[in-house]
Every structure is written in C-alpha cells, then in structure tokens.
Amino acid sequence: xxxxSSAREKQGAASTPRLLLLCTLFTSLLSIFYxxxxxxxxxxxxxxxxxxxxxxxxxEKPVVYLLITDASLIEADEVDGISWPWPRSAYxxxxxxxxxxxxxxxxxxxxxxxRSVHGYEDDVGFASAVEEAGVILANLSSSxxxxxxxxxxxxxxxxxxxxxxxxxxxxxxxxxxYPYIRAPVAELTERVKAVGDxxxxxxxxxxxxxxxxxxxxGNRYHPSLSLSASASAxxxxxxxxxxxxxxxxxxxxxxxxxxDAEGMARSHYYGDSGIYDKYLLLRVIKSQISIDxxxxxxxxxxxxxxxxxxxxxxxxxxxxxxxxxxxxSNDPGAHYHGTAIxxxxxxxxxxxxxxxxxxxxxxxxxxxLLALVTARFRATTGFAFTFLLLALNAVTAIYMFKHxxxxxxxxxTSINLIGCxxxxxxxxxxxxxxxxxxxxxxxxxxxxxxxxxxxxxxxNRLLLGxxxxxxxxxxxxxxGFSTISERLSPQALVALLNEYLSEMCDIIGKYHGxxxxxxxxxxxxxxxxxxxxxxHARLALLAALEMQERLRVLRTKWAAEGRDQLFVxxxxxxxxxxxxxxxxxxxxxxxxxxxxxxxxxxxxxxxxFYGTNLMISKKTRALAGDxxxxxxxxxxxxxxxxxxxxxxxLLGKEGEVGxxxxxxxxxxxxxxxxxxxxxxxxxxxxxxxxxxxxPEDPATAEFxxxxxxxxxxxVQGGWDGVFKPxxxx
Length: 729
Description:
Blueprint: H1 3-35, H2 40-54, E1 63-68, H3 70-78, H4 88-101, E2 105-108, H5 120-133, E3 136-142, H6 150-160, E4 167-168, E5 180-182, H7 186-189, E6 194-197, E7 210-212, E8 214-217, E9 220-223, H8 225-234, E10 238-241, E11 245-250, E12 253-258, E13 264-266, E14 277-280, H9 281-292, E15 308-313, H10 333-346, E16 351-353, H11 356-376, H12 379-404, E17 406-408, H13 411-443, H14 449-457, E18 465-478, H15 481-487, H16 490-510, E19 514-519, E20 522-527, H17 536-560, E21 568-583, E22 588-593, H18 595-610, E23 614-617, H19 618-624, E24 628-636, E25 645-653, H20 659-677, H21 680-690, H22 698-709, H23 712-716
Parallel strand pairs: 1-14, 1-15, 2-15, 3-6, 4-10, 16-17, 21-23
Antiparallel strand pairs: 3-5, 7-13, 8-9, 10-11, 11-12, 18-20, 18-21, 19-20, 21-22, 23-25, 24-25
Helix pairs in contact: 1-11, 1-13, 4-5, 4-9, 8-10, 11-12, 11-13, 12-13, 13-14, 16-17, 17-19, 20-21, 21-22
C-alpha cells in the first residue's frame, strides 16, 4: 500500500463517524417524509412504467367487453327511435343472446337502482331474463345515505343481505365501514344470481390501481363485482383472511389475493381496455332481434362462448371512465373490473412492498455502506459505488416485478443514495477545502509552489501522526547575533531579520525544501517531506551554497547602506527521521524529529570551533553524490553518541571552486591523517603549508592550536585524534 493510500485510510477512519452521523440524519429525515407517504405518488408512477414497458399482453383473454358508445346512443336515437335511457327489455335481449351463445358469466357494470322509466313490466321482463341466465348485477356501497330515504336504505340492506360472504379470520381494521348500499331495485335483486360492488378507488393522481375485494357494511362483508364474477366462474365456496391475503377455495381450486393494509388488491394491468375484445351492446341487442326474426345476427355467438362478458358504458354522456396506468383519461369502467377478474382467475395480482418494514432497513443499510465508502475512497469511487447501487436498485425492481409480481421501493432508496452521496461528497469537499486552506496558510510562505500544490492536491500527507524516512535536516544561525541585536533598534532589527529570512526561505523553497520553524534568527528546514525526493541531500547542499552566495551579495548591499553584515553558520545532516503533523488535534506542527535532526543542529554549532560556515556530515556527503567539493574537517565526539561523527566543510560545486582552495583542502586532509595517527610534528608542518593556499584559514589555525597544546605523554598513551569539545554541542 502506498503512502497516499495509507494516509487516505487514516483520514477515512477519522471522518467515518461524522459521515455516518450526517448520512444517518439525512436518512432519518427522509424516513419521516416516507412515513407520511411523501413518495407514494412517485412509487405509483414507477409501478405504472413497469407495467407499461415490461408487462406482456396475456395469451388467454377470458374477458369480453360489451359497451354503450357515443355512436350507439346516436344510432339508437336516430335510427331505432330509442332515446336514453334505453328500456330494460333491450338489455334482456342482450342477456338472451349471450346466454344462448354460452357466455360463462354475464355481468352488468351498471346500477339499476331506479325503476325503469318505461314501466313496471319493463323491470319484470328484465328480471326474468336475468334470473334465467344467472346474471350478476352491480351495487355501490357508500359511507353516506345521500338522496336515499331511510326506508330505502334499510330495504337495500335487506335485499342484499343474502349476498354477504361468510369470511373467516376477518380483521375489521383492514376494511372501512360503508353502511349504505345503492342496490338494484328489488325486482332485480331478488332474482339475480349475485351482486357485486363497483366502488372505484382512486390514488392521489386519480388513477385506479387498487380495487377492494370485500366491502364491509357493519358486520357483513359484501363482494366486489370482480370477486362475485370470479367466484362464480371458479366455483368458489369459502373465503378466509390469512396474513393479509384473501384465500378463495372451492372444489379442487384455491386462489390467494394479496391485500394491502386497507384490504385492497393491487391490479396488474396488461394494457388499456383495447387488449380485450370489445363489442357494441347495441349490436348484440339487434343480433338477438335478428335471430328472432330469422335473420343472421350482427355478431357470431361463438365470439362470446365461455367468456366473462362485462356490459358497461364507454359513452361521454354516461361518464363511466376509470383512469388506469395505460389510459389516464377515457378508458371505460368495465376495464377496472375486467382486469381484476383476469387477475383473480390467473392468480396474478401485484404486491407492493412499500411498507416501512421493508423500506426503512434498506434506506439505513445503503446509507451506512455509502458513508463507509465515501469516507475511505475518492469521490470518483463514491460516485461509481452510488451508481452501482442505483443500478442494482433498478435491476432488482425490474426483476422482482417481472418474475414475482412485487413492487419494491425505488424512489426513496434512490433519493437516499443520491442525497447521501451529495452530502458525503460535500462534507469531503468542505473538509478538503479546510485542509487546503490549512496547507496554504501554514506552508505557503515556507514551501515552494509545486510542493504546496502537491500538498493541496493530497492533504492526507499532513494527517496527524508521522512516518520514519531518511531525510536531510538543515540548521542555520547568525554568528554574533546577540551583539548585533543589542546595537539595533527593534524596528531596524525586525527589518533586517525579515529581509534575511525572506531571502533564505525563497532559496530553500526553490530547492523544494520545507521551512520547519524560526527560532529568533535561526532557521530549521528539511528536505524529503512532505513530498519525498530521493535527491534530498543534494538539494539541501545546493540550497546551502546558494544561500551563502546570496549572503555575500546581501553583505555588499548592507555595507553600502551602513547596516550590519550577517555571517551565517549552517549545519546539515542526513539520516532516519520521524516526520509528520505532530501535536494535538487543535494545535499541530508539521516537523521532523530524531537523532539525525539533533545532529544537524550540533553541526551548525560546531562551525564556531573551525571558523567555518557550512558543515555537513559524512552521511550527507555520501548521499549527495558527485558534483560537490568538500574537505574533511574532523572527527567529533558528540554528547550522547559512542562513535565519533566525521564532519566535512562544503566548499562549493565542482567546477566553481578555485584550484588553490582545492589544493589547500587536500593538504588539510593529509595533515589530518597525520594528526589522527599522533604524528603531530608532521601534521604541524603540513597544516602550515595549507596557509599557502588558504591564507588565514581558521580551521588550520584550530588544529595548530591543538597541536601546540597537546601533551606528548597523552599522545604516546593512546591518541585517537577525536575532538571532544569542552562545551555541550
């Protein structure tokens, strides 16, 4: 795992609880809207689309519609001289024709609740035909008595009482009470085979997707028109409620109808009314009259054999339109009941899994998954995961509908996924923006623009904690600064320091270094973090040389201005260091720690013993590679270390150091070899020769002083040439 991925996991672990809380709060709010049915209309609309685009027309079509159309009303009036309402004797002719044709069931989706305007005999004649053919008529339950008299309301309950069903296991909470019934006139109701309720249930958008199977009127249960017709066709003899299902049983047959919490079944539409054969009721009436007169009928009776025939209206004047998912304006009411009949016969009602017990666990589970993914991965991964869940949700919905007739929630789940993704992405964006602001404000003045950009692109590099890696540390200090500061006013001192520090930091940034901190006039910097570079030692040396060169130019400028000149000592060391954002969550500092860092500081201080300005360690010299001219200065015994540290003076880049200085450095190193062997006389002679090439060399003077002060007995007793300074370094 690379460093970026590891850091991103750390950040994800830190932000996961907050993202979980945020997504949970959003899902909880969404759940409240869900519980008050805010998404019910969308759920219904999606179920419509599933039926429209996935449902296939049935192979067998047990239902046939006989309709009264606008054209039929005009023809009856203008051709036959029969105005609306038609005499019931005309309907009797249609019943005779259908009965003789072998229709399985004859159903009127018409309520004959008023006596015929054509007289009592008209009702009696129709009643005889109804009784002979075993016709099923419609009634309509209501929660209000409306225009019925109290006497008529009681009479309707009496004459329909024999059609009430003995339903086992009923739960009154599933069914709303409709105490009033508009029934056909007594002459018809007393001779009809069955009656069925034609109540039309509309959803919020006016579409009829659900149909009541049972209508409760007090303590009695009356069947719907579709249930009456289907029960008669199937030979159903018993009814019971089992776990939100209406179970119908008869000799060798059983059907289960899933009911929702209100006791209604959800119809599975295969298309609009056009998927079933439709014929004109007027033509059927005339067909029977033609047969009676010895003429051929308009329709072949075979068209209706073994069919369930629903007689209804499709005329604008009669206003019996019932919107459905396929036709939201002008489909006849017969199709509302015909679809339900087909569903009962085929056992093919839809089941909606829209209840909270099914949906809410899915909402919270997907919210949890999305929060975990977006917390630990980039936005593109979160987007892909969200898209995958959305696609899975859609595919599952299609599969469950097509193969199991189940309608699962898509809307709330999709809104939850999209909302949680937007919130999580926004949260990450704000968090990253804060990190970017932190990076820019904290490091913008001390790092090169490309390093700052890299940190802004991946702020995870600055997470609380640290990594151990080999890097190069740098310390610098102004020689004699205390004396200078005593001479200058605070304003002059600040101006001088600001100019000096700005110039030095610009160079450090130029070579991709990181300024750690200022301590008065001292600068601490490092190379190799937050953006790791394998050439960190080389970059540090190049920066140090350029800083010294810039100081020479600045000293000329300051001298011309009559200001103090600054001489700066620098120490550089490379080695394993702990680097990272150290501190508390409220106050942090991006820094380096470790033995190698401390040594760099001590090398800076050690410059004063040799009169040098740029001291580096042996490790740094090795890591920097070729291209630099150095001279070995000494082996120093640093406090806290058992082994001496070999140190070098950085003289410059190859090709830029004069031959005389290089030759003097070689003589110095040769003299140092003699010095370490204890050959002090030879060392003294060779050190003296260094002056010929490096006049007044402070480092040479230091060794000549040591040789003069050396105790010959000490040399003969075990001299190792290691410098052990009296003061702590």
